[in-house]
Design goal:
The protein contains 1 helix and 4 strands, in the order αββββ. A hairpin with a 2-residue loop joins β3 and β4. The protein has one helix at residues 10-17, and strands at residues 28-29, 36-37, 48-49, 52-53. It is an alpha+beta fold. The strands form 2 sheets. A two-stranded antiparallel ribbon has the order 1-2. Strands 3-4 form a two-stranded antiparallel ribbon. It is rod-shaped. 13% of the residues lie in helices and 13% in strands.
Length: 60
């Protein structure tokens, strides 16, 4: 048989909604050029990853 939905209190509702937070992306310093970049990604400023040049970056 059908069971009526119970009332959800304000505190219970708000506890469920309390986890909708934005997090700041992690940033690390590039060992080559000391610009900040995302971890485990090629540096956009110098083009290096893991001590090797992966992409050529023009200095315009």
């Amino acid at each position: 048989m059908a069971v009526p939905k119970g009332k959800v209190s304000r505190s219970r509702r708000d506890k469920r909604r309390a986890n909708w937070k934005l997090t700041v992306p992690a940033m690390v310093e590039c060992p080559q050029c000391h610009e900040y970049k995302m971890p485990h990604r090629v540096c956009k400023a110098c083009g290096y990853y893991n001590g090797k040049e992966v992409i050529k970056v023009s200095n315009d």
